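W.,

You were right to be curious about this one. When I first looked at the sequence I had no strong expectations either way, so I just let the prediction run and decided to look at it fresh. Below is the sequence, 218 residues in total, followed by the output.
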Amino acid sequence: MGEAMSVFETLRAAADPARAAQMSAYMRDQFPFLGISTPERRKLSRGSLRRLGRQDVDWDFVAECWRLPEREFQYLANDYLRGIAAALSPADIPRIRHLVVQKSWWDTVDSLDMVVGQIALRYPEVNQTLLAWSVDENFWLRRLAIDHQRNRREQTDTVLLERILVNNLGQSEFFINKAIGWALRDYSKTDPDWVRGFLGRHRGAMAALSVKEASKYI
């Protein structure tokens, strides 16, 4: 944990209490912050994450980031996981699930969805897990399942996308309805006709927010 302790100390030394209060307020006071902007955090941690990335996947480092109270440490773990995503496999999915359901909010979940999406693209058997997550009682797992194919473009599995989205129609949860709209809006840049077709098939069951977001570019 030597490298990990070094980067933790570096970030703590850069804390800005005034900015921390503003950042916490922006996130509805869900978590305390150090007060470090994303560009600054990435600049300060780049060397350490590069060195950690040359080693085997360090889940102890990730767990410690999640244990620490300030939100920047969870962002640090997400930066690390995105950087080593190519080394992750289905065996790592249960660990990622634990992160999703602990200290849950859109900021970490919307980063972890890309990590899971990369694993699932290489290992299609993970799609069954994502289908299960799409009907889980925990709506953050459902949100991740909905949005895990963002930025896949032509590699999007539209059959899977539709099944997951349909599993989440008729919801009152803001974060679910927003995610449905984002997933459709993102894919509309690649195949607007498919998204129009989806809206034609399911508009009656969709929240107005989802339709508004999905229709932004079509």
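Here's what jumped out at me. The radius of gyration is 18 Å. And, maybe more interesting for your project: The chain has a mean pLDDT of 97.

Coffee later to discuss?

I.
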